[in-house]
Design goal:
The structure holds 5 protein chains of 5 kinds. By secondary structure, chain C is an all-alpha fold. Chain C has one domain (2-230). In chain C, 69% of the residues lie in helices and 0% in strands. Chain C has 8 helices and no strands. Chain D is an all-alpha fold. Chain D has one domain (2-111): Helix Hairpins (Orthogonal Bundle), CATH 1.10.287.3510. In chain D, helix 1 (2-22) runs antiparallel to helix 2 and helix 2 runs antiparallel to helix 4 (73-104). Chain E is an all-alpha fold. Chain E contains 3 helices and no strands. The longest helix of chain E has 30 residues, at 50-79. The chains are: A mainly alpha, B mainly alpha, C mainly alpha, D mainly alpha, E mainly alpha. At the A-B interface, strand 1, helix 3, helix 4, helix 5 and helix 10 of A face helix 33, helix 34, helix 35, strand 5 and helix 38 of B. Strand 1 of chain A pairs parallel with strand 6 (953-954) of chain B.
């Protein structure tokens, strides 16, 4: 348990890298998405411009204390996952504060940001916030089912819940990745990931067209900047978690960047192919296909 | 010493003397009658005193100076003295009670009453069978006459029915007597008993006829329409005497004649008793008329006693104790209830709500009902306990089941009635007038119940150790009930704190009990504090609350199963009254009580099996059950699970907790439910792992726990009522605990303890705060609330912290539970249950969000603009609990490590600590570090945002962008009603109220069956006579048909 | 019809039971049991020639007391039953004129009947008969009086007084039995006297007198109450 | 002889019961009771009968002779009591029947079903 | 001899009983039931029970019958 300043600074550096990579990744994805549909797309540096603009906006509207705290909670959620995740395998510096707890901690810390955001948006008083949150939560409950099954399957497979140990067990080449040793768990996990990233077909929660307003409108300026910051960090952190669980982890930053990019790309790729689900459709879907895959993933280890 | 013969001489002499009086001198007549009744009561009482105190030998009275069998002899022994005292006391009090009626009907009726009571005395005392017949006839005729005290037209019909039925019975009785005389050459009961005429065919038939007559006199189901009608038609004052006096005497006759036929006849007594017990209780469920209901109840109790007599060869020396304790409860309670019925004068059960005008009478009514069902501290509780224990020792499970089933059915209608009295609107057309001669008998009977209960308790093994001190405290609060809330609250809290300190010194080295002591008593103090914001006297609240806490304390203190069960029932009674105090609580309190009683009987059965396995009365007996082990453990688990509201047994909880008063909800939710947890923990500790049946049970319970969680949480999601939402949430949380404890590893139990402690704290906070808000806003519906964060920031913070704990979000203590939980699950290998639980855990977020959003966030309603923060008396205990949560969150190791060490005695160690960091074979967790990391990061990020923020503009409530225009009515913009509609579409099928439908159809089935069955009571007296003959013939063909 | 069949079936069942009693009954050849004791000792112990009376009055005196009580109860109940709803209008037939013959005959015969009744109960310990039979005879005398004069109103007070006093006397003799002899209703509180004479058998004749009076009064009371009510005129 | 009387006693009991159970008229039912009671009395006396013996009324105190000469006095004493009791009950029933008749102006037993269930 | 008498008595009493129960006219039925009592009292004489016979005759067939008649009479009175 290392509470030293050095540790803190290394972690801060890691956070900075992740933030930037996250922003780059998102602009890249949007470009790819635009290319696929025949548009030109945004420049790769667009996120930085946006972020700078948002942080420097002077007008800022608040509906109250919880409204103010919402983004903080949200950012804490993303940062927290990063903090508790050993981001680079075998590196003392980049293992962050993962000594605080194991996989269970990360699974549950996901809720931290979600809850804070929900409450903050709730105080905004906008009716669509409530609708959006209710949909998000509804969908989230079922997204987590295959994820849990996959995690349980991994726990049985590796007899550990420590992420470092799971990554350690996958060292030894391409074929020792969970992807190959436990393909069903990987499948369940990756399907769950689709929902977690909230791209089409599971993006009713954000519903860019039907609900053009709501939290993103209520929150603007610095608040939105904080939310965007979190988005970038969270995407990379989540992808890194999946990388650690299913794709052998990363022993250096390059590996991390490649793997997280591919994982993220998977979700965008699927999103461009499928139309959006209604909420009960996605709930049912998650309780069917990925869940069954997850159950089989456990059964074969019994 | 006045010889017992003077009972007859004086009573008859006075009766004849009364005939000399002019018909106008009713005052003198009534005085003489009362003097006569008092005199015979004195004689029998004096003999009772002699036997009890001086240990006098049984006295034989030889009439005419000849020894039996040549002349009639009477016996006055302990039993006779006791029973005649009971009869005469009831007679005297009934005489007093009926005095106005008697004066109106004239001196003749007084004579009849006096002779009636005298005849019952002789029936008890006589040892001559023909003499018995004569006095039975006297009592029958007198009964038929006294029915007419009621001026109702149907009294003649009832009297006629009674005469016809008893006419047939007594005629046959004569044939039995004469033929037994033929073969035995004697009329003396003792000689007849010794004669063994069973071997001769005619003798056997004679015995049969005698038995069937005696049994028919007891009005066995279904040949008892004539008896029921008398109960219904007679003045309640007299029905009381039939129920308490005639039944007592009749039962004693059966007891006297038991040796006549020997053991081969006993099973028939038992079977007929059982049929009567269950059948009459079934009939009782359909009654609307209080007197008729009481009639059925009386007969059912007689059936139970008949059963006990039939089982006497198995119960051995305990028969008399068991029979007496049940009899005396029936005697006093039934007399009291009938007398009350005469005071209330309502022809339907609903009218009894008038008792609320006189709370003390309501209290007495409750006393009688509880005594009838067999709650402590009344004698029937001890009787039933001993009965079930003995039956289990004899492996007589069928009878145990029947007895408990019958008792349960009895509870169904008695508690419905009690509920009516407590909750229905007070009818304005009924007036209760205070008349001392009617009230005094009721008081005395209630007093009898308490005194005898206290007196008999040491006669049961383990009963001598029952701690009555908390109950005395409860009693003191009854006496102080007139004081204002502030004073009583302070007294209660002081008392509890004092007792807690005292208790802790006894509980050294027993961490588990200490934890529960903190939850029960510490919780009591905190939840009671909220009571300071109430005004007035809050009549009845404190005794009941303290009764519940007394029970809870007793559970912790109990060393023997009896003490445990005693306290368990006390707790149930107290909590029932607390729950039913809520405005709309009547049906919920009722279902709570029924489930509790069902559960208690399951427990009783289990305890009995434990006792029978080694004749060990301590709780440790649970550790070595050898009789029907699996069933015993299952029953015990089910018994405890009714209190933890596990799936299938949970339907009482939402209503009961949701509709209770705002500070009662936390008591019954945060504290009371833990009693079930404590029970389960005790059970599982003694049960251990490794037994085949036990392991299967645990596996099943694991699934039950998981599914309970799912159903509870899903149920909460779709609630619009804030308190019901919390109630469903409790079901879910208790499901976690059940699951965790069922895992039976150190980790699982640690998780169980963590959940227990957490649930105690957060549910107390939530119910206190939400309850306070509900009261303040005057609605339970969350969609009618909104925006309260501005008005009640402290409440908001309390709720926020609570829901973070429920959700298990790090860094608060809820996560400790989750972490331990998943490690335990994976170590145990219960993967699918784990997945279900996890799913349920996320579902929790749905309702948590709904709760906090709908109440505190969103748009403030116009009618709530002037709301203020809820009372500090609610917030103070809440914040004390928040401090507790914070400590537990930051230093989990301080609490969990000792618990873990305690558990390592029972389970292999699967968790070890290094400083603040916990390790299992699967992973690690450091609560303190997480707290530090999260707090640091949070503060830094908050600082970052504050740093980046410019001038923040506060905006008005409706300053939102809403489809290009600003809304003005908050109702249209507060989206809260049915917000999970889509979710419901997808998974709503999971919340189909299957369990409710199941229980509903069960009860419908029961009622329909009872309704169908009661058509035999057609009201036609000839049919009733036919029933009597049918009973005889069927009984004959079964018993002696092959002879 | 089904009901009748059921009743027949049930009675057959009972007959089956009685048949069981019947076939095991062999008729008594000799006196056994209690009966033999009374035969051997009854006369000596109690001093009554009529053993039935000895048993009824002394050995089983308590039963007899109960029996008297039953009549008493019946009379009392009938008394207050018929008193209920007194205001009810009862349409009575016009009372038929009784024949002169019956009226005058009754004036002669009634005292004789009373005498016979008294004779029966005084001699109860010697000859067949006793208090009940004598009482019944006295009651029939009262009945005759009623027949002769239907409008006659039997004085409730006199009857009730006789009834009560004899009842109290009965109980008092019983208590005297405790004080002076072996127990309640022991007849030996008076000397047994010479066997077979009127003044023998201790208190049995005395008790029978009171029983006779009491039963007579009670029965008269019952009859009187019923008939009184019957002849009640509408007003 | 005693058999015949015993049988007729039992038959009277059964006939009486038949009357009680099957007749609709209250008076008839009560008549059934008197027959029923008479039958029982006959049965009781018969049980005390000893073949060829005389009534239990003695001329002299002679235990041996008494033992061989008389029938059992006990059942007779019991029957005496039973007869009187029967009268009391019958009278009472009749009065109740009268009252019921006054109430409903009928003696049909099917009309007195105010109390049921 | 006794047997013959007993048989006759039995037949009479049973016939009387049946009549008491089944005869349409109540007054006849009452008389018939009195007859049953009377035959019973003769039977008691046969059974060496003069006490019982006397009682049955006076109470069973005498008073009971009269009380029945009174009751019947009263009902008739009411009936008009």
């Amino acid at each position: 348990m290392d509470y030293s300043i050095t540790k803190f600074l290394w972690t801060l550096l890691g956070l900075f890298i992740v933030l930037n990579w996250g922003m780059l990744m998102s602009s890249t994805m949007r470009r790819i998405g635009a290319r696929v549909s025949g548009r030109f797309g945004i420049p790769w540096y667009q996120p930085w411009i946006d972020l700078t603009k948002l942080y420097s906006l002077k007008s800022q509207v608040s509906h109250g204390a919880m409204f103010f705290l919402g983004p903080v909670f949200r950012l804490m959620g993303g940062v927290g996952i990063f903090l508790f995740l050993p981001i680079i395998y075998g590196s003392d510096h980049w293992s962050n504060y993962s000594f605080s707890g194991d996989l269970i901690l990360i699974l549950y810390f996901q809720f931290f940001g979600m809850l804070g955001m929900a409450l903050g948006a709730g105080e905004g008083g906008h009716p669509h916030s409530a609708i959006g949150i209710s949909r998000g939560l509804s969908q989230f409950t079922t997204i987590e089912v295959p994820m849990t099954l996959a995690v349980i399957s991994l726990a049985i497979q590796y007899q550990t819940l420590s992420i470092s140990d799971i990554v350690a067990a996958q060292q030894g080449g391409f074929t020792t990745w969970t992807l190959w040793t436990n393909p069903l768990a990987t499948a369940a996990g990756m399907l769950s990931l689709l929902g977690a990233f909230g791209h089409s077909p599971f993006n009713l929660v954000k519903a860019p067209n039907e609900i053009p307003i709501g939290p993103p409108t209520e929150y603007h300026g610095v608040f939105l900047g904080v939310l965007r910051t979190n988005g970038a960090i969270l995407h990379v952190a989540e992808a890194a978690l999946f990388m650690n669980l299913f794709f052998g982890g990363a022993t250096n930053w390059v590996e991390l960047i490649v793997k997280t990019f591919l994982i993220y790309f998977w979700s965008v790729f699927v999103g461009t192919v499928f139309p959006r689900f209604r909420i009960e459709q996605s709930v049912r879907w998650f309780l069917k296909v990925p869940t069954i895959i997850g159950i089989i993933a456990i059964i074969i280890f019994l | 010493m006045v010889a017992p013969i003077y009972i007859i001489a004086v009573a008859l002499g006075l009766a004849f003397l009364l005939g000399l009086l002019k018909s106008s001198s009713t005052n003198l007549g009534s005085l003489l009658m009362l003097a006569g009744l008092a005199f015979i009561a004195f004689v029998s009482g004096q003999w009772l005193y002699e036997f009890l105190i001086n240990g006098r030998a049984t006295e034989m009275i030889f009439t005419a100076g000849f020894k039996p069998p040549f002349s009639i002899n009477l016996r006055m022994g302990m039993q006779e003295a006791l029973l005649t005292t009971m009869i005469n006391a009831a007679g005297l009090l009934s005489g007093l009670y009926l005095i106005d009626t008697l004066k109106k009907t004239g001196i003749n009726s007084m004579t009849v009453l006096l002779v009636f009571v005298m005849s019952l005395n002789v029936i008890v005392m006589t040892r001559d069978i023909f003499n018995l017949f004569v006095f039975l006839e006297i009592s029958s005729i007198a009964t038929a006459g006294l029915v007419l005290l009621s001026s109702k037209g149907n009294a003649f019909q009832a009297g006629m029915k009674y005469l016809i039925a008893t006419g047939i019975i007594s005629g046959l009785f004569l044939i039995g007597i004469i033929f037994s005389y033929l073969y035995a050459g004697s009329l003396n009961i003792d000689e007849l008993n010794a004669a063994h005429i069973m071997d001769i065919k005619g003798g056997a038939i004679a015995i049969f006829i005698i038995y069937v007559s005696v049994i028919l006199e007891l009005k066995p189901f279904p040949a008892n329409g004539w008896g029921i009608d008398v109960y219904t038609a007679a003045k309640p004052g007299f029905s009381a005497l039939i129920s308490s006096g005639t039944a007592t005497a009749g039962l004693y006759v059966a007891y006297k004649l038991l040796p006549l036929g020997g053991e081969t006849w006993l099973p028939y007594f038992t079977i007929i008793g059982a049929i009567t017990f269950i059948g009459s209780n079934l009939m009782g469920t359909r009654q609307q008329n209080p007197n008729r209901l009481l009639g059925y109840s009386s007969i059912s109790q007689v059936g139970l006693l008949l059963m006990i007599l039939g089982l006497s060869n198995q119960l051995g020396d305990n028969t008399l104790f068991i029979a007496f304790s049940i009899l005396i409860s029936h005697y006093a309670a039934k007399a009291g209830l009938f007398w009350l019925s005469g005071i209330v004068k309502s022809q339907n059960l609903e009218g009894w709500a008038v008792l609320r005008k006189q709370p003390f009478m309501l209290f007495l009514f409750g006393t009688f009902i509880f005594a009838l069902i067999g709650f402590p501290p009344f004698p029937s509780f001890f009787g039933k306990w001993q009965l079930i224990m003995e039956l289990a020792t004899q492996e007589n499970y069928l009878w145990m089941t029947l007895i408990l089933t019958g008792s349960f059915i009895e509870a169904i209608y008695l508690f419905k009635w009690l509920g009516f009295a407590i909750k229905l609107d007070v009818p304005s057309n009924i007036v209760m007038k205070f008349e001392w001669n009617k009230y005094l008998p009721v008081y005395l009977m209630a007093l009898t119940l308490y005194v005898i209960g206290f007196y008999v308790s040491p006669m049961v093994e383990g009963g001598a150790f029952i701690n009555y001190i908390p109950l005395l405290f409860v009693l003191a609060l009854f006496a102080l009930d007139f004081l204002p809330v502030f004073v009583k609250n302070t007294i209660s809290i002081a008392g509890i704190i004092y007792y807690m300190v005292d208790l802790f010194s006894q509980l050294e080295n027993d961490l588990m009990r200490q934890i529960f002591a903190v939850i029960f008593l510490g919780g009591a103090v905190l939840t009671l504090m909220a009571g300071y914001n109430k005004k007035g006297t809050r009549a009845g609240f404190y005794p009941m609350a303290l009764m519940m806490f007394a029970g809870l304390t007793g559970i912790i203190e109990a060393n023997s199963m009896l003490e445990f069960f005693f306290s368990w029932e006390i707790m149930t009674a107290g909590s029932y009254f607390l729950i039913i105090r809520g405005k709309r609580s009547m049906p919920h309190g009722y279902s709570y009580m029924l489930f509790s009683i069902g559960g208690a009987y399951a427990l009783l059965f289990g305890f009995a099996l434990a006792y029978a396995s080694g004749l060990d009365t301590t709780i440790a007996a649970l550790g070595h059950i050898t009789q029907l082990t699996t069933l015993a453990y299952t029953l015990l688990a089910v018994g405890f699970m009714t209190k933890t509201a596990s799936l299938g047994l949970h339907i009482w909880l939402p209503g009961a907790h949701g509709e209770a008063e705002s500070d009662v909800s936390p008591m019954v939710s945060a504290i009371l439910l833990k009693a079930g947890v404590f029970g389960l923990m005790l059970l599982f500790l003694y049960m251990g792992t490794g037994t085949e049946g036990g392991d299967k049970l645990l596996y099943v319970l694991g699934w039950v726990g998981a599914l309970t969680t799912l159903v509870g949480n899903l149920g909460a999601v779709f609630q619009e009522d804030a308190k019901r939402l919390l109630a469903y949430s409790s079901i879910g949380q208790l499901g976690y605990i059940l699951f965790a404890v069922s895992i039976m590893t150190q980790l699982g139990w640690l998780a169980g303890f963590t959940y227990t402690i957490n649930h105690f704290m957060f549910k107390a906070i939530l119910f206190l705060v939400i309850g306070g808000i509900v009261v303040k806003l005057g609605t339970h519906n969350m969609y009618e609330m909104g925006g309260m964060i501005k008005k009640m920031p402290f409440s908001f913070i309390a709720v926020l912290i609570s829901i973070i704990v429920i959700g298990g979000i790090p860094p608060l203590s809820g996560f400790a539970g989750k972490w331990l939980f998943y490690h335990a699950i994976i170590q145990k290998g219960w993967y699918f249950q784990g997945a279900v639980i996890f799913f349920a855990g996320i579902i929790a977020f749905l309702y948590l969000f709904k709760l906090i959003h709908s109440v505190f966030l969103g748009q403030l309603k116009d009618n709530h603009r002037n709301m203020k923060e809820i009372s500090p008396w609610i917030l103070i205990p809440s914040y004390l609990l928040i401090i507790g949560i914070m400590i537990f969150s930051a230093f989990p190791q301080k609490i969990l490590q000792p618990i873990g060490e305690m558990l390592s005695v029972y389970f292999p160690e699967s968790l070890h600590w290094e400083g603040t960091k916990a390790y299992t074979s699967l992973g690690y967790w450091d609560g303190t570090t997480i707290m530090i990391v999260v707090m640091t990061a949070f503060i830094l990020l908050l600082g970052w945002l504050v740093l980046m923020s410019k001038k923040i503009k506060k905006v008005e409530q409706f300053n939102i962008v809403y489809a290009a225009e600003r809304p003005f009515r908050p109702e249209t913009t507060h989206v809260s009603y049915n917000i999970y509609a889509g979710y419901k579409k997808a998974v709503g099928f999971l919340v189909t109220p299957v369990v409710e439908i199941f229980w509903d159809s069960m009860s419908a089935l029961l009622f329909d069956f009872a309704g169908w069955l009661r058509r035999i009571y057609s009201g036609n007296m000839q049919n009733y006579a036919l029933h009597v003959v049918l009973f005889i013939v069927v009984f004959y063909l079964i018993a002696l048909g092959g002879l | 019809m089904i009901k009748k069949l059921l009743i027949v079936g049930l009675l057959t069942g009972l007959a089956f039971m009685f048949y069981g009693l019947l076939i095991s009954y062999n008729g008594n050849e000799t006196l056994t049991g209690l009966g033999s004791y009374y035969a051997q000792n009854g006369a000596r112990e109690v001093g009554a020639a009529n053993l039935v009376s000895a048993i009824v009055v002394t050995y089983r005196g308590l039963d007899t007391l109960g029996e008297v009580t039953i009549l008493f109860l019946a009379a009392a109940i009938i008394g207050f039953v018929l008193k209920l709803k007194k205001d009810e209008v009862v349409e009575a037939r016009p009372v038929r004129e009784t024949s002169e013959l019956l009226t005058s005959a009754s004036q002669v015969i009634v005292p004789v009947i009373f005498l016979v009744g008294v004779y029966i109960f005084i001699n109860g310990h010697l000859t067949p008969g006793g208090g009940f039979q004598g009482g019944a005879v006295i009651a029939s005398g009262v009945l005759l009086m009623l027949l002769a004069n239907p409008t006659m109103h039997i004085s409730h007070n006199i009857v009730a007084t006789i009834e009560s006093i004899s009842g109290i006397a009965f109980v008092a003799i019983g208590i005297l039995g405790i004080v002076l002899a072996g127990g309640f209703l022991d007849n030996r509180l008076l000397p047994l006297g010479e066997f077979g004479t009127l003044l023998s058998a201790g208190a049995i004749p005395l008790i029978y007198i009171f029983i006779g009076l009491k039963v007579g009064a009670e029965l008269s009371n019952i009859i009187g109450t019923i008939s009184y009510n019957q002849n009640e005129k509408p007003n | 002889m005693e058999y015949i009387i015993l049988i007729s006693g039992f038959l009277l009991v059964l006939i009486g019961l038949w009357g009680i159970l099957s007749q609709k008229n209250l008076i008839k039912i009560i008549l059934g009771f008197t027959v029923f009671n008479t039958g029982i009395n006959i049965v009781m006396v018969t049980v005390g009968y000893v073949k060829g013996k005389t009534a239990p009324i003695l001329d002299v105190i002679s235990p041996e002779e008494a033992l061989t000469s008389i029938v059992d006095p006990v059942p007779q004493a019991l029957v005496l009591t039973a007869i009187v009791i029967g009268l009391g009950v019958t009278a009472l029933m009749l009065v109740y029947a009268l009252k019921l008749y006054q109430d409903k102006k009928t003696l049909d037993i099917n009309n007195f079903k105010d109390l049921k269930w | 001899m006794f047997i013959a008498i007993a048989i006759i008595l039995a037949i009479v009493s049973i016939a009387g009983a049946i009549m008491a129960i089944h005869h349409k006219k109540l007054s006849v039925a009452i008389i018939a039931s009195g007859l049953v009592s009377l035959t019973a009292s003769v039977m008691f004489l046969l059974l060496a029970a003069p006490d019982v016979a006397l009682t049955e005759a006076s109470i069973g067939s005498g008073l009971t019958t009269i009380i029945f008649f009174y009751a019947l009479n009263k009902i008739r009175n009411n009936h008009d």
